[in-house]
Structures are given as structure tokens and as C-alpha cells.
Amino acid sequence: MESNFNQVCSRLFYSGLLVAMVTDRDGVVILKSSVCDEAKEAMIEPTMPTKFTIANNQASKLGLEHNKSIISVYEQYQVIQLDQSPLIITVIANSKANTGLFMNLGNDLLKLTEPLVNALNE
């Protein structure tokens, strides 16, 4: 699964992808693919998935049913997080990159990690 994960992610590094990772809700990294490990460690702090969980729960209280993803755009980066309960898929890219491209990547990663999710839910 790790080689497939890296293969899917590596084709988008030239398009602005910096980091893609799969974590549990506590921030434990299960799969990760990045352009340069040392430059990205600050971006993948363990509290990011827990913040997503809190924001996701709050957004769901708006009465718009269950929230499946959150996109945050900052000055230098965009962060796309998708709920794959009990896992969280996080994609971090350059802020000027095509957001739709990375939403599609997130959907590809949802399909790729489905066997892992099924095993964890058993």
C-alpha cells in the first residue's frame, strides 16, 4: 500500500504538492509522501488531525449533514483534509496550485486506503 500511495502522490509533486499523509485521529502518521522531509516537518505537526476533527464536528453542527472535507488556504500553503473515519487524509500544497487537482488526489487516496479502513473497523 505504501508504494501505491507514493506512486499516486509522486505524479503531482511537479503540480505543487508538498505533503500527503494519512493519520489516525490522534495524529499518528500511517502513510506519508513528501517532496522534502526536512522542510515539511513543521507542516505535519501531530495536532493538525485533531484540529480537523474538532473543526469537522463544529461544521457538522451547522445542519448541513456530515462534513466530508475541509479546505484551508493560507498565504503560502493550502491544506485539504478529508474524513475517512477512523483515518484522516491530509494534502498540503502550494497556495497557488489547483485545488481541484488535489481534491481529486484526496478522492484517489480515499479509494486507496479503503482496505485499511475496513480492517481498522473490524
TrEMBL record:
Any one Gene Ontology cellular component term annotated for this protein: Ragulator complex
Organism superkingdom: Eukaryota
InterPro entries membership: LAMTOR3 (IPR015019)
GO biological process, one term: cellular response to amino acid stimulus
Pfam families, A to Z: MAPKK1_Int
Family in the record: Belongs to the LAMTOR3 family.
Record protein name field: Roadblock/LAMTOR2 domain-containing protein
Gene name tied to this protein: PARPA_11908.1 scaffold 44722
